[in-house]
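[09:14] KT: can someone run the structure on this one? pasting the chain below
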Amino acid sequence: DYLNQAWGMQKNAFGRNGSSIHESDTGGYQTSYVHHLENPVRFTREIKVTIEHGHANHCRNEMSSTAYWYAKEPAAAVEVPPVEKRAPLMKNARGQWLFDPANQVTTQHVKLTPEMREMKRLFKQLFLCHEVNKTPRKQRDQQRVTHRDMIRHENSGAFDIQTLTVNDPGPPKKQNQRPQNIFHQNIKHGSLPFFPQSRGQMT
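[09:31] RB: done, structure tokens below
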């Protein structure tokens, strides 16, 4: 709402608001902006602005912000990071992000909560399941993927962690053949909100 968009940021860049870099062109991040030209935010000494974005609050690297302002008098600016710290974040041939401390600039370290740590482990398991689906069939037939799913109860704010084991079924079966059992669920209560992407049918 603050960025004058709805249902995510749209691929546009206007004079007062928009996205100079859109996530559809990068596969994972974007840069959006708002210019307070007609409605300036005035302050005399200091100002603190917070935004409740309401999504992925458990992720440490979900969002970062930078503010620019016009001062009445000249003031010292923060030194520009060296060139190696401003190198772009790259991907390898398989589309995986390459994280290198040499080009990372972190001004504030967020303390990880138990939910952040659990979501980080869940992401790694889901990414592993995605990678298995991209491997050759002979390798897929020999691999089993276990990922942890999170179920939120209607009357509870806590997450119950369950285990879901997935066997990749290989190529799709013909309609006149009975599909194989490809999911083994170890669920005490609740229901799974989604299943990993896998070819075949679930029985």
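[09:33] KT: thanks! The chain is about 10% helix and 15% strand.
[09:34] RB: yep, looked fine to me
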